[in-house]
Request: fold
Amino acid sequence: MAKIITLGEIMLRLSTPGFERFTQASTFRVHYGGGEANVAASLAGFGHHAIFLSSLPDHEIGTAALKTLREAGIDTSFVDRSGERLGLYYLETGASMRPSTVIYDRARSAISEAPVDAFDFDLIFKDADWFHWSGITPALSRSAAHLVKVACEKAKAHGVTISVDLNYRTKLWTPDQAKAVMTPLMSYVDVMIGNEEDAERVLGFKPPKTDVLQGQLDLDGYKTMFQALKETFGFSYVASSLRTSYSATHNGWKALLYDGNHFYESKTYDINPIIDRVGAGDAFASGLIHGLITATPAFAIEFGAAAGALKHTIPGDFNQVSVKDVLSLVEGNQSGRVQR
Amino acid sequence: MAKIITLGEIMLRLSTPGFERFTQASTFRVHYGGGEANVAASLAGFGHHAIFLSSLPDHEIGTAALKTLREAGIDTSFVDRSGERLGLYYLETGASMRPSTVIYDRARSAISEAPVDAFDFDLIFKDADWFHWSGITPALSRSAAHLVKVACEKAKAHGVTISVDLNYRTKLWTPDQAKAVMTPLMSYVDVMIGNEEDAERVLGFKPPKTDVLQGQLDLDGYKTMFQALKETFGFSYVASSLRTSYSATHNGWKALLYDGNHFYESKTYDINPIIDRVGAGDAFASGLIHGLITATPAFAIEFGAAAGALKHTIPGDFNQVSVKDVLSLVEGNQSGRVQR
Amino acid sequence: MAKIITLGEIMLRLSTPGFERFTQASTFRVHYGGGEANVAASLAGFGHHAIFLSSLPDHEIGTAALKTLREAGIDTSFVDRSGERLGLYYLETGASMRPSTVIYDRARSAISEAPVDAFDFDLIFKDADWFHWSGITPALSRSAAHLVKVACEKAKAHGVTISVDLNYRTKLWTPDQAKAVMTPLMSYVDVMIGNEEDAERVLGFKPPKTDVLQGQLDLDGYKTMFQALKETFGFSYVASSLRTSYSATHNGWKALLYDGNHFYESKTYDINPIIDRVGAGDAFASGLIHGLITATPAFAIEFGAAAGALKHTIPGDFNQVSVKDVLSLVEGNQSGRVQR
Amino acid sequence: MAKIITLGEIMLRLSTPGFERFTQASTFRVHYGGGEANVAASLAGFGHHAIFLSSLPDHEIGTAALKTLREAGIDTSFVDRSGERLGLYYLETGASMRPSTVIYDRARSAISEAPVDAFDFDLIFKDADWFHWSGITPALSRSAAHLVKVACEKAKAHGVTISVDLNYRTKLWTPDQAKAVMTPLMSYVDVMIGNEEDAERVLGFKPPKTDVLQGQLDLDGYKTMFQALKETFGFSYVASSLRTSYSATHNGWKALLYDGNHFYESKTYDINPIIDRVGAGDAFASGLIHGLITATPAFAIEFGAAAGALKHTIPGDFNQVSVKDVLSLVEGNQSGRVQR
Amino acid sequence: MAKIITLGEIMLRLSTPGFERFTQASTFRVHYGGGEANVAASLAGFGHHAIFLSSLPDHEIGTAALKTLREAGIDTSFVDRSGERLGLYYLETGASMRPSTVIYDRARSAISEAPVDAFDFDLIFKDADWFHWSGITPALSRSAAHLVKVACEKAKAHGVTISVDLNYRTKLWTPDQAKAVMTPLMSYVDVMIGNEEDAERVLGFKPPKTDVLQGQLDLDGYKTMFQALKETFGFSYVASSLRTSYSATHNGWKALLYDGNHFYESKTYDINPIIDRVGAGDAFASGLIHGLITATPAFAIEFGAAAGALKHTIPGDFNQVSVKDVLSLVEGNQSGRVQR
Amino acid sequence: MAKIITLGEIMLRLSTPGFERFTQASTFRVHYGGGEANVAASLAGFGHHAIFLSSLPDHEIGTAALKTLREAGIDTSFVDRSGERLGLYYLETGASMRPSTVIYDRARSAISEAPVDAFDFDLIFKDADWFHWSGITPALSRSAAHLVKVACEKAKAHGVTISVDLNYRTKLWTPDQAKAVMTPLMSYVDVMIGNEEDAERVLGFKPPKTDVLQGQLDLDGYKTMFQALKETFGFSYVASSLRTSYSATHNGWKALLYDGNHFYESKTYDINPIIDRVGAGDAFASGLIHGLITATPAFAIEFGAAAGALKHTIPGDFNQVSVKDVLSLVEGNQSGRVQR
Reply:
C-alpha cells in the first residue's frame, strides 16, 4: 500500500437518464468527479492510501462532493473548504451515431481560486510515494497553475515520483497557452501519460498519422513519438491509451507504454455497449500507476488497459473496481459469464 | 424560415420502461406524438414556422398534448379544442429478437370527428410554403378524409407545395379502402414519400423484389417504381426511407429520392443500439422537406437520411435535433466521440 | 392443457438498476424467482395447469412471493407457509466484458427446512402429467434432498413423467456431494436436461472438448455424451442448451436433444443485447416440456431454444411470453420489426 | 370462506406521481381497478373465494389487468376475453386545498359491450353465497344494465344474497336515467350501500340536511332516510360510509348501518395524510360484506369502517390489507407505532 | 387578454427528491424558474399574451429553459441568446421542523451581463398593457439594474402600467445597496408588492410589529405602512401576501391590498401539507395582476391569494393552474373532494 | 473533538417507496443502518472521531455497508471482514393510522458470530473518551453478548465513559433473557438511556403509569424511576426520549435527563409529517452524548431532543445533520421558513 497524492478539481456532474437529450430531462443523475479525484478513487479502491487535494465551497453541495470522496475510501483530511462554488458539468449520453456531449460550467470554482497556503505540502508529501496531476488543473486559472508548480516542487523535494496526464481540454485553453504553462512543468514529471492529440497540442509533438476514427493504428509512429518525448523531457515512462471510436456506444481500446527499453502494447478490448466512458483515461492512469508501483511495466500496461476498459461499463466518473476485478479481465475472462 | 403546415392526429403514447413487457409495467413513460405532429416538431426544431392542425379534447390530457407541441416550438394557434378523447397507443420496446409491439386505442379521437369549419384554412394557408399530411389521417374516419381533401384544395388554391407520407397502417384500413380514398388525393401531391410496402398497398404499385429482412436492396427496382409513380401521378419528387431490420435494436437505414432526372441514394447508417425508432420515418420526411426548401435534392436526401438515423437514438416520438446536429452527421461524424 | 408440477425454491432477487455495481445502488429492483418457479411460470404462460410446490415464511415478504406466483397464473394451492426466512440473492447486471455477479443469501430458507408431510403428494400428483425439478433443490439441505426423493417416488407411483435440470451450483455443493445425492435420483428421471458442465460435475460424464468461450461446438462430442447418458440411466430424452459467451451482453444460444434415435439441433440465436439472462435455462426447459407434451421432439427443441432465447430480452426471472410469441420466433421472425 | 361473485368493469388507471398535475407528468403510475374488482380483491384478501366477472380485450393490456386480478387472489376463470378496448381513467392526486381530479376515457370498453351469454351464470352462482354489484355497471350501457339484471335474476334463483353499492357517477348518467334503470333492480337487493348523495340521485330519497363539507352529521336524518329506504325496497340492510372532507389530504371517515332494528354507528377516523382515497368506498363495502357473512352487524360496521379507513393509506385501487390488519385497527391500534 | 411583459432571470433549479438532504441525493429533479418567469407563466396560463424578457446562453441547457417557457405558453420571441452560463440554484425541500434550504449559484449568469440593446423595447412595449419586474433583477448586477431602469422608462413612455415585487434577497445585496438602487426606481411603479420585511429592507419603512412566526397579524400596522408607502411613492396600489410559518410543511396564507380608499383582506388559507412553496409570491402577484386587469381590487386580492395558495400544492416554480382552478377555490371549494 | 467508539450490527435496510405495502413494491430503497452505527454516524457528523466496530462479510454487499459508513465520516479501520451474511430488515412505511412494519432477517449475521479477537481493544480504546453500545448487540447471540462484556471491561480499563441504550427488541429475546444478560453489564455503564418499556423489560423496573398512546406523561413517575435506576446501578446519568404516537405520521417527542441533582425536561416537538422515524432514538442518544461531552446536562437534553426530532424528517437510518442544524432548532427555529 503506497501513499499517493492527487491534486485537482472535483465537479458536480449532471447527466441525463435513459439516453435523453438535455432538453428532455426532468431529472439529472448526480455524480461527483474529475480527473484527479477519479485517479484517487481508483487507487483507494486498489488498496492504496490515496489523498486528494482540492478546495470545496463550505456549503452542502461541497459537502456532498466530500462525502463521495470519503465513500470511495479517499483520505480527505487535506481538502480545503473555501471558495464560492463547486464547478459543474452537464453530460448528455449519446448512443450509436449520436455523440455524448458535455457542457462545462466550471469557471471560478473553489479550486481555481484556492491559495497555495491552503495546503501544508510538507506534511502532505512526507513519506509519500507518488504524486499525480493532470493538465486540466493548470488550465483552470493562473493561481491553479501556480499551485501545481508549487506542489511539484514540494513533491520533488520529498523524493516523490510524479505522473501527469496531459488531458488537453479545448474549452479551457489554447495550444499556445497550454504549451507555455505545461512545458516548464514537464521537468518535474517521471511518468507522462497523454494521447497523440494531447502530445501535439500541449507539447507540440507531431503525432503519428493514425486515423483514430478508422482504427488503424500506426504503432511505429507512436514508438517514435514516445522516444522523442522521453528524450526531450527525461521522462522515465511515456504511456497512452488508444481509443477507436466506432460509435458513441462501441469503441476499441488499448494502451501503450515505453520505458526507454521496451515498447509495451496491451491487449485490445472491443467495448460494446459502453455504459459510461467518462473517466476511462483516469482509470487507465490509475491502473498504470498501480502496476508500476507494485509490479512490472509489462504488468502495468495490461492492468491499466483492463482497468480503463472496465470503466466503460460502470456509471459515474469513478471506476468502481477492485484489483481482483481487474486481474480477472487481465487474465482473459472477457466472456461475461455470470459468476454464481 | 418557411411557413409549413401539417395536419393530423397527436396521441398519448404510453411506453414501458427498461424493456419491460406490457404485463410487467408499474409505470408508463408518457410521450405525445403522431406522424404529422412529429414532422411539425422537427421542422420547428430546424427553425421553420411550423403550424400543426389538429383537434384536442378540452380537458387536461388534451392540454398536456398541446403543451408538448408548444414546447417543441410549434405554432398551436389553430389547434381546435373539442371532441371526447385523445387517441392513445401503448408501446412495448423490444430488444434483440423480441420485436417492439404497439396496441392502438385511437378510435373516435377528437381529430377523427373534427368538422371542416374548425379550421380557417384561408387564414392558415395565407403565405404558406408547404403543407404536409400522411395517409394515417384519412384512414381515421370519413370526416378526417374529407378534412384532408378540403385542406389539400385550400393549400393548392394558395399555391402551397404539398407533401404526403403514405404511411399505410394495417390496423386502420384495408388496401382496398386505402386505394379508394388515397388515389384521388394524389392529384394534389407534389412530394410523395412512401416505402415499397406503402406504395403497393395504398397505390397498387408492384414493389421491387427486395427482401427487406435480408438487407439486399434492389435499387433498380426502386428506380423503376419511382419513375412509374412519378409518371402516373405527376409528383415532382418521390422519396423513400429504407430500413433493414437485423433485430429490434439493430437496423440498417438509408433513403432514396427521385426528381425525374436523377436518382439520389443517401449514405447507409448502421444503427446499433436503437433507443427508439418510432418517428424515424417522420424525421426523414422532415429532413427531406427542410432540404428541398433550403437547398438541393442531393442535400435533401442526405439531410433527411441523417435526421431519420438520429431519431433512432432519441426517446419519444419527436426528433429532438437541430440543423447543426444533423449537419454534423451528414458531414461524416459518426464516431460518437464526446464533444468536450 | 397438461397438469404439471414443479418443486423447489423461490427467492427474492435484488438487482441493481442501470448497470450499477452493488456498491453504487440506492435502490434494488425486486423480482421473485428460482429455477422451478420459473418453469412453472413459463408453463402457466403457455396455458398449462402449473402447480408450484414450495414453502414460504408466513410473513408479508413470503406473501409477496406468493402473489408473484399467482400473477403468473401458477396454482399456489399447495404452497406451504412455514419457516423463518425467504432465501434471497443479489444480482449485479454486467455489461460488455464486465460479468454479472450473484451473491446468494439463501441458507436456512423455508423450503430447505420444510418437512415432507407439508405436501399431500397423492392429491398433488393425481391425474398429473409431468413433474419437473432441478439439481438446486437437493443441494439446499438434506431434508430438501429427501423431499425430492419422496416426490419422485410419488410421481412415479402416479405414472407421471419426470424431468430434471441438473443445474449444478458451485456455491451450494461439491461435485462429490452432488454425485452422491443425484446419481440415485436419476433412476426416476425420464427427461434429463443439463449442459456439459453439469453432466461432468453432477454425473461424472466426461464432456465434449468444446471451448464454450470460443463458440466452436463439438457436436459429435455432445452426441456421444448424450448417448452414454441415455444408456447409463435409461433416460427417454437428453437435452441441453448451449451458450456461447462473447460478453456479458452478447451471447450465442442454441439447444440439442437426443431421443435415442435422432439427435436434434435447434437454430442458433445471436442475442445482442442481453437484457436479463437469468432464467434462460429454465425457459428452455419449459419450452422443451411444452413441446414434448404437445408435439414432436423436433418441434420441442426449436420451441425450447426460442423460448430460452426470448428470455434473454425480458427483465426478471420469469419468461413473460406466450405460445404465440415463441412460435413467431420459431417461424423465423427475428427481425424485430414493430408490430403495428 | 364464502363464495362471492362481483361483476363490473376493471379499468387501467393512470395517475401522476409526486402530486404533479396532468400537464407536468412524464410518467404515469399504472394501476388497474374498478369498483367491483376492488371489492373482489378485498374479499380475496380476507380469505374468501372471490370471483370477478368482466370482459377484457384479448390483448396484452387486457392481460395485464387479468394478471393484477390473479395477483390479488381473485378467481378469474370466468373473465370473458373480447371487445376492443380496456376503459381507462386518468387520476391527478390533489393536496391540501387542491382537489384530486379524474378524467374518464371508458366509453365502449369491453364490458360495456359484453353479451349476456359470455357468462355461464348457472355455473357461476352454483353454491355461491353472495353477489355484489354497483350502480356504475348499469350506467355504462344498455347492454351492461341488461347484464346486471340477468345476473341478479340468476343469483336470486340460486338463493344468493345480493348487495349493491349505488355509486352514482355524474359523468355516466343523469339522475333521471339512473332512477329509471336502478329502481327496478332494487327488488333483487338485500344489502344496499349508498351515501346521501347516491340515495337522492339514484333513488330519489331526500337526504339528511348534513353539510358534508363542514362535518356536522345529522344522524337522525340518516336514520330516517335508512328506515324509509328499507321500507320502500325491502332491503335487509342499509349502510353508508360518511366522509368529511377537510382537504384533499385530510378527511374524517365513519360508517352507518341499519338492520331494521338497530342503527349502528362506527368509530370516527381522522385520516391525515390521505395517500390514495380511490376505492375507499369499495373497501368499506368489502369489509361490511365480510362482517355480515362471518359475524354480526355490530362487528360488520366497525370492520367495514376500519377497512375503508385503511384504504386511504394505500396506493392503488385495491385495499391491500388482511383481516389481521383490519382487526388491529378495529381493536384500537390507531397510534401507528412501528411493529418491530 | 392583455399584453404583459416581465423581465428577469430564469434559473435551473435542482431539487432533491423525497425529502432527501443535499448530501443524500443521487438524482436532482430539474425545473426552470425565477420570479419574473414564474409571473409570465401564470399569466400565460390565465390566457394573457405574456412576454418574458431575459438572456439565455446559446447552449442546450439554455435551450431547455427556453422550451420550458414555451411549454407554459410564454412568448419567447424576445429572449436574447448570449452569455456564458445559466444561473442555477439547489433546493432541499424541508419537512416539519426542518426548513427548506436554497444554495444559489447564479453569479455571472447571462441576464446579469446582458446589454440594454439586446432588447428592442419600443417594439416590445408597443400596445402593451402591463410591465412587471422584481427587486431580484437589479440586485444581480449593475448592468441588470440599468436594464431595469431603461425598461421602466420605455414602459412609461408607452403608457404601460408597471408593477414591482420588492423580493429582497439577503444573499444578493445589503439593505443599503437595495435602497440606493430601488428607491429611484419606485417612481415608475404603479403597483407595489412587498411584504413587511421587503418594505423595511428595500424602502426603509418600519414594518408592523407582527410576529410572523406566531401568526398574530397586526392589520392596523399594515394599513398604516401601506398608506405611508402609497403617499411617499405615489403608488396606485400596495399589496402584500402574508405567510404564517408553522412548519416547513404547514403554513397559513393570506393577502392584503390597499388602493388609497379601501384596505382589502383576503380569506385565510391553512395549507397542510405544502408540496412546494417556491413561487407562491409570484403566483400571488400574477393573480393580483390578472384581477386588477380584468375585474376589481376586491376580486383581485381574493384571486391573488387563492392563486398563491394553490401554488403551494404544485411541484416546480411555475403555478400550473387555470383561471377555472383559481375561481373554484375563490368560490370556496377547499374541501378537496375528488372531481369525478 | 472526542474519540468515541460504538459497537454493534449494521444491516441492509430494504424499504418500500411511496407508502407502498410490501406486496406492492417493485423496488426497494436501499439504506444501511443499525443502532450503534447510527450513533457513530451522528457523532461523526458532529465532528467527533467516531469509530464503529462490527463485522461485515467479505463480499460486495458487505463492502457497500462499509462505504456507507465511510461516507458518513466514520472511522472504519477496525471493522472486521468475516462471516457469511449481512443481516437485513424490511421496512414498510406506514401512514396515518396504518403503522410502519418491520420484518427482520438478521439471524447468523457476521457480527453475531464474530470472535472477540477480531478486535484489538487495547489499541481501539487507547485515548478514547466514550464507548457506546445498545441492548440489541447482546441480544444477537451468546458470542455477541460476550463481545460486549469484553469491550466494556477493556473500555473501563482505559477509563472510557460508557453509555448504553437499552433498546429492548421483542423479536430478539424475552424479558427474562434480557434481564439475565443485561443486568450484570449495567455495572460498567455511566450513562443509561432507555424508555419506560425498556426499563421494565430489561431491568425489571416498574415504569410510570403513563399512557404513551394518549400523550399524558407522568413526569413524577419518570423522576422516581430514574432515581431508582441511578441508585440501583450507580449510573451518572439516566435519560429517555418520550414519544407520543398520534399516528404513523404524527408524533409528539421530548426527552428527559436525570443527573442525580436535577431532572431536565426538553422542549416538546410536534412532528408532522414524519418522513422516517427509524433511528430517532439513536439520534437522541448521539445528541445527548455530544452535549454531555461538550457542554452541560441542560444543553445536552435539548440538543439530544432536537437531534432526535430532526431525524424524523430525514430518510434513512442515519441522522444527516450538522451541529449547526441542531442548534438552529434548539434556538427555536421551528417555523421551517426557507433559508435563502
Q: What stands out?
A: The first strand of chain D starts at residue 3 and ends at 7. The mean pLDDT of chain D is 95.
